[in-house]
Amino acid sequence: MKEPHRIVLFAVIACGIGIGVGVIIGYFSHDTSIPEPKADPDASQRIMDEIKAENIEAYLRVLTENPHIAGRSVDEEDLVNYITNEWEKVGVKVEIHPYDVLLSYPDEADSNILSIKMADGTLVNQSHPKEAILDQSQDKPGVVNPFNAYSASGDIEADLVYVNYGTIEDFLNISKIIDLDEKICIARYGKIFRGDKVTHAEQYNCSGLILYSDPKDYAVKGRGVYPNDWYLPGTGAQRGTVKQADGDSLTPFYPSIGTAWYRNETKSELPKIPVTPIGYDDAIMYLEKLGGEEVPTNWRGGMNITYRYGPGFAGEFSTSMMKMHVTTKNQMATTKNVIGYIRGSVEPDRYVIIGNHRDAWVFGSIDPSSGTATLLEMVRSFGQAVKQGWRPRRTLVFCSWGAEEYGLIGSTEWVEEFVKVLGSRSIAYLNVDAAVTGNYTIRVSGSSSMKQVSFDAAKTVSNPNQNEIANGRKSTYDTWLHTSDGDEPRFVHVGSGSDFATFLQLPGIAVLDFEYEFDTVALEISGYPVYHSVYETFEYMKAFVDPDFSCHQATARVVAEIARQLVDSPIIPFNVVDYANSIASDKDTMLFYYGSMMEENAIDTGILDEAVANLTTAARSLHNRIDGIDITDALAVRSVNDQLMQLERAFIDKQGITGRSEKSHVLYAPNLHNTYGSSAFPGLVDSMFEIDSDANQKDRWNELTKDCNFNKMDGLNGYASTHNIGIAVWVCLEERLLSV
């Protein structure tokens, strides 16, 4: 019998964050005054001045010369050696960490093909296995045909049904009018993670899924397409993984090293249906022939057709079937992480980590190589500063991850291998993936404790846009604020989709993610148009995104300044009040949607308000204490820094969220139905999803009410009050969730 799985559902910390070492070291110390090493007051400006746009451009040209998919020689040998050499040239110590993992590739000798099978067996309207070469820069060996990694292989014939974006709401709506059992569904890219679309299709027993990029989401009517403009041409197709779990599928929760036990692939939770992507030039051949009712306005894309649900085709194709021929295969390969470090001079056992993944589906000039080039220039700048006499107080760690595109594999395996060390020593992880997707404004997201240091850093960086400067917005911060709603720049939590995820969800390390983006509101497109296609080349970046690489330079400077403050500031620049305020806001939002239902079902949420108030009071008390600290008292400084480091760790439940054991942060986790998005109070939100329309609604509420016990945790509260350390889980709702 499966044992009940208990999680912390409301874990609200009233914090001054004194877990473990922070209590022992420093608070009970006597006179420990020692001379404080003097910080270099000019280091910030020297590091920023050293970051050159032309160097980033040169790096990007090298990185995008050839396709560099994970597990193959260009990425795992050529670029690993290139990055290693570049880092060692500036004095950075480098280690290589290899992992043997399960990857996935298309069969180049037997391409994935879609077609319509006529009643007599004739195949018509076959899809194009390759994207058209529109510029000679794309005509290189090593370009893999469009595919979805970890798709099941097979030949499927069935009626076709259009499911819009394939969100859970889309499937709920269409399942009320069409039986999706054993149908082939076609969904447009956008809104949510592609892997969630596959999960939803499997939940509704679809036999296959076709993914396509609709021009409404990746082009603008009346504008040109690449190579004449930056929008996606009709032959462009988005590659990408459809695997849900992060890390290697064969060694969950453990690193894929030589001593690892690998489970059988049949036991892994990989997609069970065939999936393949196409461009809109192919998609129109199938969508224009669909029968059935017309879809509502918000389901209509940008092609000049009447969008219909199906099932099946109409007219002369009414007796025809959709056919999928998918030959994608999984295979073992070695991926490598390049890890470099500059050792700290005062606290070498405290780490500030900056990372970017190296692998790309094809050339990857935006994702990830704009970030790789940015990271290379930051490392060079830090290395030059060290040569000129700068000595960081704490250790800087630089990471070039392998196989991120396959589900954050390189970073996840590394964190799993060193989780104990990272959990006890790491201050923060700063992630730079697609560093520049546009030239509109910077976007920073992540742990709210680092919101203020992000604002402060952005204020020191000159605006890369001359038009913005002419309008009085001289700094990167000014444009960030101007393009946001409210009295401060937009700063949101992270979900998943890049290498920050495992750092937050496993050891509980504070994270930030950076991107200089396009105007998402004005352009009304789902993402930068050529995402994961063969057209994402150096020439594309140079012509349409950041011609002078000034946005790359600004992004690098913001990240470098945050990193410098984190390694050099005697007191780690975390703002616990910001974190408390964020929790308060998220609590209000959660109760707006679910509070009434919870109260109606005898779940008293009033104690949550008290808990957040206690949290905010404790946070302010901690900062008052920090304001009065003697920074020449090394142990007092160490004590409070240890408390600050433990902030995110306090929300980690090693049992994980019910049904999602790999997600351990009980306050913030990827959304259950959109991995890219973030959910606050994820255990509660997961359990409440569609509860009001469940056939067993009464039983679900009875079970939820029975197990929702708000308990003051006396031991921890006593620990909190002792010596005014202020660390406690003030309120904890422990519950056993039903499988929803």
Secondary-structure blueprint:
Blueprint: E1 6-14, H1 21-24, H2 43-50, H3 53-63, H4 73-89, E2 93-105, E3 113-117, E4 123-124, E5 148-149, E6 154-158, E7 160-162, H5 168-174, E8 184-188, H6 194-203, E9 208-212, H7 215-218, E10 240-241, E11 275-278, H8 280-287, E12 321-326, E13 329-342, E14 347-357, H9 369-387, E15 394-401, H10 409-417, H11 419-425, E16 426-436, E17 441-446, H12 451-459, H13 466-470, H14 476-482, H15 500-505, E18 510-517, H16 520-523, H17 538-545, H18 550-568, H19 576-600, H20 606-627, H21 634-645, E19 668-671, E20 674-680, H22 682-688, H23 697-707, E21 709-711, H24 714-721, E22 728-736
Parallel strand pairs: 5-10, 7-8, 8-9, 9-11, 14-15, 14-16, 16-18
Antiparallel strand pairs: 1-22, 2-13, 3-4, 3-12, 6-12, 13-15, 17-18, 19-20, 21-22
Helix pairs in contact: 2-9, 2-18, 3-9, 9-18, 12-18, 19-20
Give a short synopsis of this structure.
The chain is an alpha/beta fold. It has 24 helices and 22 strands.
Number of domains: 3
Number of strands: 22
Q: Which strand order does the major sheet show? A: 2-13-15-14-16-18-17
Unreliable spans: 1-35, 709-740
Distance between the termini: 18 Å
What is the CATH top level name of the largest domain? Alpha Beta
- CATH superfamily descriptor of the largest domain: Zn peptidases
Mean pLDDT comes to 88
The largest pleated sheet is described as: 7 strands, mixed
The CATH topology assignment of the largest domain is: Aminopeptidase
The helix count comes to: 24
Structural class comes to: alpha/beta
Shape: globular
Percentage of residues assigned to helices: 25-40%
Radius of gyration: 26 Å
CATH architecture name of the largest domain: 3-Layer(aba) Sandwich
Tell me what portion of residues adopts beta-strand conformation: 15-25%
